[in-house]
Amino acid sequence: MKPPLARAALALYPPAWRARYQDEVLALLDDSGGGPAAAASLAWRALPAWFWPSRHLHDRPARMRASLATALVSWSMLAGLGLVFAQLTQLQGFTAAGHPELRWAYAVFDVTLAASALVAGLGGLPLWLLMLRLARREQRTRDTVYLLLPVLVPVAYLAGLIVTVRLVGGADGLSPGWFGVVTLAGFGAAAIAATGPGVALRRLQPRGPALRLAATAAGLSAAVMAVAAVAIVVAVTSLTLWARQFAGYHNGTVPGIYLALVVIAATVTTVSAARGTHAAWAQP
């Protein structure tokens, strides 16, 4: 295996894991003469290292920070999937006559998504302000930018969306192709906005009550968001079974892929946030 390929795979791992194991793994790959298949296997194993950070590599604050960083990104992806669901179903007035569970699923989704965002925002605000003050006091411009990404990126995305709609939108809005482009750009923007505070968490390494509050809020927010994910599963399944006349629901492949993504994002969010909350309240 050429060094760039191996190092690219190792770059996917958490910093604490790389600091402990990178040299050993590189030596092992060099001795075994691994190729692209070994790099792919190594990259795939990076996922558990993020979702289930090893206790011996982190103290309690570090475990909270690692869990918060992962949960923030996965929560953002899950929220994005939820907004796509609302745009393509609820806002289009899709219903299934004689199946009230669909309307209930819409209502539960609306309430739980808003509640989850509110809990996460209120619980994480003190930590965000703490890190912002720390970055400004120490004149760490890069970390300040990382922390401001959740504000700057959505504004830039919305501005780009308005321009795109005006340039290529028709009487019925965007075409399916452009809607797909806008959706993918939205997921990319969400990932960037969520990754910024995660990087700042690792670089600034905050501790104290604000970190514990954020970890606790993340656990509660993830639990509420899991209910929203269940509502999405119920609604999409209902539409696939009983509203097949609507575009996209006559074939179960696309809804199936979408639901798999929802389940994966919800699982990662719940597991990561739960581990952070457990670290926040575990006995020293």
Would you kindly provide a written description of the structure presented here, covering whatever features stand out?
- With 284 residues, this protein is mostly helical.
- The protein has two domains: 3-47, no CATH class; 59-281, no CATH class.
- The chain is built from ten helices and no strands.
- The mean pLDDT is 85.
What is the count of DSSP helices, taking H or I runs of 4+ residues?
A: 10
Number of domains: 2
| Coarse structural class | mainly alpha
The percent range for helix content is over 70%
The amount of beta strand, in percent, is under 5%
**Low confidence ranges:** none
Shape: globular
What is the first-to-last residue Cα distance? 43 Å
Biggest pleated-sheet summary:
none
Assembly state of the chains shown: single chain
Topology pattern, helix = H, strand = E:
HHHHHHHHHH
Mean pLDDT: 85
List how many beta strands DSSP finds.
0
- Could you tell me the radius of gyration in angstroms? 21 Å
